[in-house]
């Protein structure tokens, strides 16, 4: 599944208009399934960025004898060209050597900060987040961050959903109920669902209601994004300051301010105002895009990785520039500021198999009874939190 952040109803009658609109935008941050269709091979290989995405994307071996997807083997991928900042860090610790084009910024920081000669404004901090911090952020990303008034990809269909993670854990079912709410009472245009209201019920209660329903666990699996702080309106591609919102939680704000420092001149402080939390399951990708809706590009985007290992592609200012592939592991932090903000980037692959996911440290930490549900989720998922200053 390709990560898409537009309200799904746009795939209905509005889809043609929306496709035309998005094609005219300079940066299409969203990849639509129809753009990437396997039937449309030419299109998927059109640019250098697309070709590299295709190289690393998850494909299954067609020749595998079993038709059962669970037993299908992923096609092997050549990972020899993927930059690995963890081994660069280990090597640097051993003998202070660095590969050509990689620069180390500061060593007094507990984790060194790497930058790339060819990509000014891009910074990589391997293992910047402690294991405890990673676990806290995984828990928060699943319980607190998707809570209303924060919006998620589910808002457009179901309206605000409270306590999705707990409901999924308890086997609850979301059921549609007709209510007297009328359109003019809705909080925003793109959130109106003409008198429908969805509520969680136990399986037994839901079966008695005979209404449209969907399981909490299926909704959790399909959770693609949530937004914190100022809310981003994906259909209009702007921050809609009139939407009700909470400030970014204090601890996340402080963390982002600290982490942003290497990308800012001394004395300039980062002001976190909005964040996007991306949830990836096996096979999910985030297509090449630019993040260009913020006013001041000298301020970094602070991007935190949690859970399964991923491949991140850092391209140039054109999709024709061949991107650099690098691994992103749980605890790694990326900063993109200045010129790097004009560079296309995306995530073509996450690794959910035991050998490649590299989440052993989370598995040893999340052992308490209460944590098993988080462990269960993160063993086959990746979460990315990227924090922005909007104005
Ligand atoms: O998942 C990632 O590491 C990158 C996310 C990203 O680029 C975005 O949300 O704009
Ligand atoms: Fe991005």
Automatic annotation (TrEMBL):
The protein's matches in Pfam families, at most eight in alphabetical order, are given as: 2OG-FeII_Oxy_2
Key words of the record: Dioxygenase, Iron, Metal-binding, Oxidoreductase
Give me the residues that bind Fe cation, please: 289, 291, 345
State the species of origin. Answer: Pisum sativum (Garden pea)
The name on file for this protein is Fe2OG dioxygenase domain-containing protein
Q: Which InterPro entries does the UniProt entry name for this protein?
A: Alkb (IPR004574), AlkB-like (IPR027450), AlkB-like_sf (IPR037151), Oxoglu/Fe-dep_dioxygenase_dom (IPR005123)
Write down the required cofactor(s): Fe(2+)
UniProt key word Oxidoreductase: yes
- Which family is it part of? Belongs to the alkB family.
Example GO molecular function: broad specificity oxidative DNA demethylase activity
Per the record, GO CC terms?
A: cytoplasm
Single Gene Ontology BP annotation: oxidative RNA demethylation
Q: How is the cofactor bound?
A: Binds 1 Fe(2+) ion per subunit.
Residue ranges occupied by any Fe2OG dioxygenase domain in the UniProt entry: 271-391
